Here is the input.
Amino acid sequence: MTELISKLELKKINQLILKIQQLAQKVDIFCSALLLQAWRRIYFVSNKKEVYTSLKKRKGNCLRCGRCCHASLKCQHLEYDENGLSLCKVYDRKPTMCSLYPYNENDYFYHLRPACGYKYYDE
Ligand code: SF4
Here is the structure.
């Protein structure tokens, strides 16, 4: 009986640890996305020429997954069409920083790099 109770407790402890790990991962993604959003703006302001040169090396296409539009907080202009593809409500006048994403090989939200349709390397 004592063994059963301790097994049940172990199971609960493991579940709690798993939940804490999942929460920590979400916090990590959220914070790193916010930091990148701040950093990429600062970098762009002082390296515009390099950014536009780098953009010419960008391969692939946007897959309209919309993930970069809610990497941290969801953009208020993001919508999805009936096929589940992202739609920008202000596409014709969207912010420069949105249209430049990703502007070089380091300008990726790290958790989105594998899924993004834009590439700088042959992956
Ligand atoms: S993550 Fe990449 S593929 Fe997805 S919407 Fe953003 S730019 Fe497009």
